[in-house]
Write a structure and sequence with these properties.
The complex is a heterodimer of chains A (about 110) and B (about 110).
Chain A: E1 5-7, E2 10-13, E3 19-24, E4 31-37, E5 44-50, E6 53-57, E7 64-68, E8 74-78, E9 87-94, E10 103-104, E11 108-112
Parallel strand pairs in A: 2-11
Antiparallel strand pairs in A: 1-3, 3-8, 4-5, 4-9, 5-6, 7-8, 9-10, 9-11
Chain B: E1 4-6, E2 11-14, E3 19-25, E4 33-38, E5 45-50, E6 54-58, E7 61-66, E8 71-76, E9 85-93, E10 98-101, E11 105-110
Parallel strand pairs in B: 2-11
Antiparallel strand pairs in B: 1-3, 3-8, 4-5, 4-9, 6-7, 7-8, 9-10, 9-11
Classes of the chains: A mainly beta (about 110), B mainly beta (about 110).
Chain lengths: ~110, ~110
């Protein structure tokens, strides 16, 4: 049973560029959440997708956008990259419902120069 | 007041001892609570979930929840050097699946 997968594992970009990160949820899961984890901090919620729609959004600017596909996989897009966007980007999948646990993928480490 | 607070540590315990990790949260409406372990450079890995007041045990791990005091803890018995990691407390905001994390407590288990 494959767990949550993410690609790429590492990425280096320059300021002003755009980036797309990808996530495939655990088998049987239909909900994908994205988190940003800066060094020395806990993960911060970016947004959550279910039924191909953004259901919730954290305190992140519109430069952060996403998409969910019919097979439940998801993309996170970040436009006009800033140095401060350098972080570990985590995807977590879960089943929609009460008290459902989120399982994290390995993450994508983004460095913005 | 931060939504989820943890002592950042480091917490250092000798091998075989009990490690006690604590977390407080501000939203009284929170219903779901989680402990994740994160090794350096890796992603968070679920250790325990707890939803009701009291204790929940799983092997060497025991989670404790007191909703009246807005307090969650994790006890690790017979600590091993392999338990050395950062432990993240997460609280679900309402019932919407949005996890709020503390900054994590770094645990070091000395052989």
């Amino acid at each position: 049973d494959a767990g949550v997968t993410q690609s790429p594992t590492h990425l280096i970009k320059t300021r002003g560029q755009q980036v797309t990160l990808r996530c495939s949820p655990k088998s049987g899961h239909d909900t994908v959440s994205w988190y940003q984890q800066a060094l020395g901090q806990g993960p911060q919620f970016i947004f959550q997708y279910y039924e191909e729609e953004e259901r919730q959004r954290g305190n992140f600017p519109d430069r952060f956008s996403g998409h969910q596909f019919p097979n439940y996989s998801s993309e996170l897009n970040v436009n006009a990259l800033l140095l401060g966007d350098s972080a570990l980007y985590l995807c977590a999948s879960s089943k929609q419902g009460y008290q459902e646990t989120q399982y994290f993928g390995p993450g994508t480490r983004l460095l913005v120069l | 007041q931060k939504e989820v607070e943890q002592n950042s540590g480091p917490l250092s315990v000798p091998e075989g001892a009990i490690a006690s990790l604590n977390c407080t949260y501000s939203d009284r409406g929170s219903q779901s609570f989680f402990w994740y372990r994160q090794y350096s450079g890796k992603s968070p890995e679920l250790i325990m979930s707890i939803y009701s007041n009291g204790d929940k045990e799983d092997g060497r791990f025991t989670a404790q929840l007191n909703k009246a005091s807005q307090y969650v803890s994790l006890l690790i018995r017979d600590s091993q050097p392999s338990d050395s990691a950062t432990y993240l407390c997460a609280v679900e905001r309402g019932s919407q699946g949005n996890l709020i994390f503390g900054k994590g407590t770094k645990l070091s288990v000395k052989p």
